[in-house]
Amino acid sequence: MQDHLVRLPRCLEGTKEQLLDENSQALQYLRTYYQTRLDPENYSGKGWYAGAFFDQWNFDSVEVENPTRFTAQDIAAVQCLSISFKARTVAEILYLRNDDLNSWLEKAVDACAQYSKLSDIPPSVTDYRGKTKDVSDDEWAPFVLDKKLREIDDVDVVTASKLIARKLPHIYTIWDKKVTKLAGVEDRYMRPLQITLQNDPSIEEKLEALRLAAGLPISVSLIRIYDVLAWMEQTHDPISSQNPIVGNPG
User: Fewer CB within 10 A of the end CB, N or C, for the chain?
Assistant: First the structure.
């Protein structure tokens, strides 16, 4: 089966130098999205993005907090991305299924320990193309963790991806309908993005330069920067929002 590449946000078009211009759309998107997080003293109570608080609370630390345990902080962080948890779901994640989920989370973290970002992972590792419910326990641990989370009634693909991305921010992508629509992938998203980044290293160079120019710490991963840009373009750009991309890109 052929791998498809994602279609990039239009705001990432151009050279790295062009994207770093003070008036570039990409830079403005990032500064707007993270403004309240970066400059809380000027918080006005209006027009700010809760999603900026999804990234770990200790913004400047390169270490993930409680890397092998799901905690109440993770629940709160995911809620910043428009996820509402039922009380029973919280109890399952943090207590009833906590030991099993944490066991698989630890395996997932261990499986990714040698990779610093999504593009570092060999394509063979992420080449599972079956259905999530059929993932066997000897597949790549993050995929198994996704399956385990989605065994909880109220946890779907979106919620599971956000919980895992909270713990593997540089590796695991958030599944968002607006982002995947812009990317031109309806089903699987992480692997197409992975292949796209591997095929064109200049994309990550642009994302890294934008992260620095926007004043964001390295704890905000490159794929998180990409997701924010894609989401902002899809929700704020009249062309993207009125003419959503469908189907697979060429």
Answer: N
